[in-house]
Structure formats: structure tokens, C-alpha cells
Amino acid sequence: MLLDLSEEHKEHLAFLPQVDSAVVAEFGRIAVEFLRRGSNPKVYEGAARKLNVSSDTVQHGVEGLTYLLTESSKLMISELDFQDSVFVLGFSEELNKLLLQLYLDNRKEIRTILSELAPDLPSYHSLEWRLDVQLASRSLRQQIKPAVTIKLHLNHNGGHNTNILQTDPATLLHLVQQLEQALEEMKTNHCRRVVRNIK
Amino acid sequence: MELSEYVQKGFQMLADPGSFDSNAFTLLLRAAFQSLLDAQADEAVLDHPDLKHIDPVVLKHCHTAAATYILEAGKHRADKSTLSTYLEDCKFDKERIELFCTEYQNNKNSLEILLGSIGRSLPHITDVSWRLEYQIKTNQLHKMYRPAYLVTLNVENADSRTYPEISFSCNMEQLQDLVGKLKDASKSLERATQL
């Protein structure tokens, strides 16, 4: 599958052959850093001054590179397809190799960042538990009432939620049994066939 | 057990065969237990024809006294000798003491369950449901091809009678971690019960 690069995108990327490979590598590093932490326009100004071009040009170059990397990572295109897509830009052999290396080196991390953009449910972080026995209450003395107190840690939208819950021994065994069945499900023929065939 | 004069007076009246004959005594006793343990019980519990001849004020006093005593006895897990001692002090004859203790014994379990269920507690997990899905793509990321679980815990809030749900997603490793920890908890529970 080839990347479809718009004219505007190609124009922005046309800046890259005008600087040497060290600069392109640096742009690549800045692009990934911006994906991790958000963009910082001051960086463009500094680079623009050093290269003696407008900061807009630098910004377009970095953004063009970012888009190239994110689109390629999103679609998970093969090495060959990446090379063919970049070939149309008419860059030098050296620059093409550099771009391919940038893609391969950063693909995994970029995909992780992109996965965080999906509609998000709270996700499991960890669980702590404690065994309690209730001995008495205001309304009834001399009790022996076992309970399991659970602290469930969830992540949601970058934040951390904690739920404190309780359950009785019978329900605990039921929970374990149900969730073990859930895990077993992945090993069934049906699921294995789906995983094998949808690629 | 701390019992007020009001309760004692009520019992003294209940002990008197002149105010309450055998039949009325039994009916009132049953009515007291019924008021406490039957969720559908209401004021009509005292509306029995064999109780009509008794002054309603006296009836209510004795009913309240009996119910109060029953709750206190249940709360402190009173045994037969404690019950007998108090009833003797209130001038109950042997027959009525026997009747009371038998009735109490019959209802003891329900009483203790009722008393045990009163009180604050943490939200209580009652059930779990799960869903296994195979993620293929999002609009931001194609070719994902990974399984994911969606787990929902059904929770009950005893005091507010609400039933919130807690849902979360997890991958296989996370679910294994969760199950592993719950299994540790249940093994600990097993060991503790063998001590």
C-alpha cells in the first residue's frame, strides 16, 4: 500500500534535501519529541536562524516529516512500500535511506502514541486486596463475617481512579471462576481461527 | 444489656394473667417477632380478634417492650439463661418463660441475619461480566490485531440501594494479573479458615 502524498505535503518536504542529513536527522528527532510531548514553536525559530530560512519553512519541514512518519506508522506500511512512496519525491539515495531508518526506528513508539487517541474506557492498572473479618457492629455483637476488601486502580484519560470495594468469599470464588473462563476463551479453536485469519 | 423501665413495666404487664391470658400472650409475642422480621408487617399485626378486649395503650406498650427486648437480646446474642433470668425478674411464670424462649429460638436466625445486615459497608461486588473482542483498527491506527477484554463489575451499595457498575478494559496480561491476585486472595482465605 503506497502513501498518498498531497501536493502541499510534497512542497513542505521539498525543504529536506536542501539541508544536510544531520539536520534531517535532527528534524526527525524533533518530530518524534513533538509527538510525545506536544509542539514547541520556539524550536522552529532557533533552527530557522541557524539555517538562515524563515521559521515557517522549518515548521513545514518538520510537520511534513511528522505527517509522513505518523501516516506510515498508522497504516503499518512495509519497508518496500515506504521506499516506493518516498521515491516519488525525487530525493537522493542517502536521504531516502535516512527517512526509511527514521520510520523503522520510531514506528513502534508512534503506534503506541496513536493508540492513546482511541475512544477510551477506563483501563486496568492494578489491584490490591486485604482479608477482613468483621467481629461486631453497633447492631450485632460476636460476629465472624469474613470479607475481602479490594482496591482497584484504573487509568482513565491520563488520570488515575481508585475504587474501594468489598466482596464475600463465595462471590470471590465466583469472580475467579468467571474470569478464568474469560482467559480460557482466547485458547479456543474459534478465537485461534479468527486471530490466524484476520491479518 | 441496658433495658429501660418502660420495657420492664411492659413485661410486668405481659406477665400478668389477668391482663393477658395464655392465648393473648402468645399472640402478642408472635406479633412482636412478626413486626421485626416480616418485611410486609404493619400496624395491623395487633388487629387480632382475641386481642380486642385489651386496652390499646397497654397493647402497644407491651408490644413495644417485647420488640425492644427481642432486639437487645439478639444484639447481645443472649442465651437461654440470660433470657430466663430477666423474665423471672419481670415475674413471668415458668410456662410463659418457656414459651418466650421457644419463640425466640425459632426466630433467632432470622433475627441475627436482620441485625447483621444493618450498618455501613463498602460497595459490595455481586457479579462480574466480561467481553472478549479482537481489535482491528481505529481511525487513528490501522492493523491493530490484538485481543482485549471489557470487564464489568456489578456493585451494590447497601445504604443507598444504588447499583453502580464499574467497567474497565484490559489486555490479556492485565487480566491474568487481576485473576492471579484474586486467586491469591482466595487461597489466603482458605488458609485462614483452616487455622
Outline the structure in words.
The complex is a heterodimer of chains A (199) and B (195). Chain A has 199 residues and is α+β, with helices and mostly antiparallel strands. Chain A has helices at residues 7-13, 21-37, 41-51, 55-75, 79-87, 93-115, 169-185, 189-197, and strands at 123-134, 145-156, 159-167. The two termini of chain A are 14 Å apart. With 195 residues, chain B is of the alpha+beta class. In chain B, strands 1-2-3 form a three-stranded antiparallel sheet. In chain B, strand 2 (146-156) and strand 3 (165-170) form a beta hairpin. In chain B, helix 4 (80-89) crosses helix 5 (94-116). The two termini of chain B are 32 Å apart. Chains A and B meet through helix 6, strand 1, strand 2, strand 3 and helix 7 of A and helix 5, strand 1, strand 2, strand 3 and helix 6 of B.
Return the average pLDDT of chain B rounded to an integer: 91
Indicate the percent of residues in helices of chain B. Answer: 40-55%
Residue fraction in strands of chain A: 15-25%
Terminal Cα span of chain B: 32 Å
User: Count of DSSP E strands of chain B?
Assistant: 3
How would the global form of chain B be characterised?
elongated
- Percent helix range of chain A: 55-70%
Through-space gap between termini of chain A: 14 Å
Tell the overall outline of chain A.
elongated
- Give Rg of chain B in angstroms: 27 Å
What is the N-to-C succession of helices and strands of chain A?
A: HHHHHHEEEHH
Largest interface: A-B, 57 and 57 residues
Q: What kind of sheet is the major sheet of chain A?
A: 3 strands, antiparallel
pLDDT under 50 segments of chain A (min length 5)?
none
- Total of helices of chain A: 8
